[in-house]
Write a structure and sequence with these properties.
Length: about 290
């Protein structure tokens, strides 16, 4: 495939000495912009994740501003680590830790925990980035953040799978509304490259949120809840867009190798998160 659009020249970090699986992950993130690890967790672990998402989703829907629309029959909810029983295992998973460190450096910061719920009847989203390309990426060719996704259910063809256009993390945002939403004239470029993903319970993926992607039409009767863990390199600035917090008791129970990556407030009591109104909501419409 030829590249006719202006792009950033990628400058991947040195991976000498890393184990092959991590070298491959870094290469994939700098080429395709997405990489997966199958069966990182058990199906029971993923079922527990689904239960926790269901509880958090019901709670979020029960109050104003608890969930934000991301298009027809789609919601996004941000939550606190303590609302998910498997959070410690997730952030302590050797592949998650290894990929974060290899791509974002030893001082990476865990900044976001949330989930998307595309329900029955969800439509194709517009192709998008989750935020504009940071100047550092434009100027240096380095990725400064990662999004990890974990599906809470096995993904079937008719459930509106996640679709991604490999390599497009480097496209300069020319003709992108709000630097995140490419004009429709650019869609053929993404459709030509598009890959649909069918993750199963226990699988993890990591991607650059700059790689153009979208949720597709869900024609089934099933929801497809998917967890998002957002991680930054120091200075990437995404923490300020999130409201994640932990209690003192929880914080004190964590090993230092986890707390060293937490930049969120440590509080006496957790407050339910009111979702921020984002450009994504504006562009994708209400649920
Ligand atoms: O459907 C998905 O898996 C992702 C949805 C998404 O990208 C979004 O809501 O911003």
């Amino acid at each position: 495939m030829t590249d006719t659009v202006p792009r950033v020249t990628p400058a991947p970090p040195d991976t000498t000495g890393l184990e092959p699986e991590l070298q491959e992950a870094v290469t994939a993130l700098y080429t395709d912009g997405v990489v997966g690890k199958k069966g990182a967790f058990s199906t029971e672990w993923a079922d527990q994740l689904r239960e926790d998402i269901e509880v958090a989703f019901a709670e979020a829907l029960s109050r104003p501003g608890g969930a934000v629309g991301r298009g027809t029959k789609r919601y996004y909810v941000e939550m606190h680590p303590e609302q998910m029983r498997g959070w410690v295992e997730l952030v302590d998973h050797p592949w998650v830790r290894g990929v974060c460190e290899a791509v974002l450096g030893p001082d990476y910061q865990i900044v976001e925990l949330g989930f998307d719920v595309p329900g029955p009847g969800a439509k194709d989203q517009p192709w998008h980035r989750d935020f504009p390309m940071p100047d550092e990426t434009k100027e240096t060719g380095r990725l400064t953040s990662l999004a990890f996704n974990l599906t809470a259910v096995d993904t079937d063809e008719d459930m509106g799978p996640f679709e991604i256009a490999p390599g497009t993390q480097w496209d300069l945002p020319e003709g992108f509304e709000h630097e995140m939403f490419p004009e429709k004239e650019l869609y053929p470029r993404f459709l030509e490259r598009a890959v649909r993903k069918y993750p199963q319970r226990g699988d993890i993926s990591a991607r650059s949120a700059l790689t153009l992607h979208r949720g597709t039409e869900n024609t089934s009767q099933k929801s497809r809840p998917v967890l998002v863990l957002g991680v930054d390199a120091p200075g990437a600035g995404n923490a300020e867009h999130h409201d994640m917090a932990v209690t003192r008791e929880f914080y004190d129970s964590l090993p230092e190798r986890i707390t060293q990556h937490l930049v969120c407030p440590v509080v006496d009591e957790l407050t339910p998160i009111t979702q921020k109104h984002t450009i994504e909501g504006l562009m994708m419409g209400d649920a």
